[in-house]
Amino acid sequence: MADLKETFNKELLTRLIHHVRSSYPDFNKDQFKDTLQLETWPELTLKERMRRITVSLYETLPKQYVEALAILRETAPHFKGLSGILFPDYVEQYGLAHWEESIKALEYFTQYSTSEFAVRPFLLLDQEKMIAQLRTWSEHENEHVRRLASEGSRPRLPWGKSIPALKSDPTPVLPILEKLMQDESLYVRKSVANNLNDISKTHPHLLEKVADQWYGTHPHTDWIIKHAYRTLLKKGDKKALALFGYDNADSIHLHDLTCQPSRIAIGESLEFSFYIHSDRDQKVRIEYAIDFVKARGQRRQKVFNITETNIRKNETKSYTRIQSFKDLTTRKHYKGIHTLSVIINGEVKDSLDFQVV
Q1: Is 163 exposed, middle or buried (0-12, 13-18, 19+ CB in 10 A)?
Q2: 54, 86 in Cβ contact below 8 A?
Q3: 156-206 residue pLDDT tens
Q4: Cα–Cα–Cα angle for 251, 255, 259, nearest 5°?
Q5: CA torsion sign, 148 to 79 to 22 to 94?
Q6: Which of 190, 213, 134 is nearest to 166 (CA)?
Q7: Could you tell me which of 251, 208, 210 has the C-alpha nearest to residue 345?
Q8: What would the pLDDT profile of 313-340 be if each residue is shown by its tens digit?
Q9: For residue 340, which of 52, 79, 244, 354 sits 20 to 30 Å off, Cα-Cα?
Q10: What is the pTM of this model?
């Protein structure tokens, strides 16, 4: 997987200079490059590179904020996806004192990239006013703007500034999400589900309230609710399991759990298999968990889904899975005794230890 920070590479900087100069012929590209301090570029993280570009633009564009925005609005359509977060970042850094102009700019820029991070300081500045704006955006014709309404208001947005008030009391977010519960865009629905999943981690009763009101009203809504419950389902929450038809697993029997090899090196893979047999017709959710050894020797469990299916009375099913222990940017492995567990409808049915060396 390519390093995300390489999104902001020298080729992008060359394109940025070209498109800014097309809108602003007086742009001083030499001053812009000097401010970037390219000799230290390789050591910078993704966000550090982005912020240095933002600062360099500020130093070389007109100091009048509205004039600079006009130039950036003409430039932004040429930078889509991750590279386009430069433009909302400019608004975040320099636009808090220009509410109306900045809100319009964030609505525009998000249609090419995302303004989800840039709206966070505006929530901190005036939550009531920004929540009202997010509700307005939730009815926008453009799916990227509707998604911004949900993603920007997430209590626990990854990489985003913390909003303590919404972590403590996420109820102001619910009217925004209710506008989007039947949204035709999967892009938007994923964001709504992620927002509700955030809420469920500290306020599960609020997700229950939403589910009571909305579950069963529309296929799009049902998808959102199911995806929003993923953390509670992985925790084996009985109410969550019952909502989706997963009874207790007393009638499910697990046999012959094996894993090989019992000692693996970091970078190798573990293969495990097992059988399940049922005494009655039943809906089953089958997961496995691994207690990973962490850097300081403590262990932390991660749950992985295998399948959600139906099993008939006296039926036997077999499963085989492979778990890689190759280091990733999101997970580093450490030597020590790990534990593999098979979970059915929230209940651990069997476990095995294995060693990572």
Answers
A1: buried
A2: yes
A3: 988 888 999 999 999 999 999 999 999 999 999 999 999 999 999 999 999
A4: 140
A5: positive
A6: 134
A7: 251
A8: 999 999 999 999 998 877 888 899 999 9
A9: 244
A10: 0.86
Which distant-in-sequence residues (6+ apart) come within 8 Å of 315 by Cβ? Answer: 277, 278
| pLDDT tier at 2, thresholds 50, 70, 90 | low
The structural domains of the chain, with segments of one domain joined by +, span 4-243, 252-356
For 346, residues 6+ apart whose C-beta sits below 8 A from its C-beta are 233, 235, 236, 237, 238, 241, 246, 249, 285
Torsion on CA atoms 37, 38, 44, 46, rounded to nearest 10: 110
Q: How far apart are CA 43 and CA 116, in angstroms?
A: 26
Asked if 114 and 144 count as a contact pair (C-beta separation under 8 A), the reply is: yes
What is the SS3 string spanning the chain?
CCCHHHHCCHHHHHHHHHHHHHHCCCCCHHHHHHHHCHHHHHHCCHHHHHHHHHHHHHHHCCCCHHHHHHHHHHHHHHCCHHHHHHHHHHHHHHCCCCHHHHHHHHHHHCCCCCCCCCCHHHHHHCHHHHHHHHHHHCCCCCHHHHHHHHHCCCCCCCCCCCCHHHHHCCHHHHHHHHCCCCCCCHHHHHHHHHHHHHHHCCCHHHHHHHHHHHCCCCHHHHHHHHHHCHHHHHCCCHHHHHHCCCCCCCCEEEEEEEEECCEECCCCEEEEEEEEEECCCEEEEEEEEEEEECCCCCEEEEEEEEEEEEECCCCEEEEEEEEECCCCCCCCCCCEEEEEEEEECCEEEEEEEEEEC
Q: In the CATH scheme, what architecture does the domain 4-243 have?
A: Alpha Horseshoe (1.25)
d(CA 2, CA 332): 17
287 near 304, Cβ under 8 Å?
A: yes
Sheet-wide strand order for 299-311: 263-264, 347-356, 336-344, 282-293, 299-311
All residues at 6 or more sequence positions from 30 whose CB lies less than 8 Å from its CB, including other chains = none
In whole angstroms, give the CA distance from residue 287 to residue 241.
13
The fold for domain 252-356 equals Immunoglobulin-like (2.60.40)
Can you read off the two tokens belonging to residue 342? 């098979």
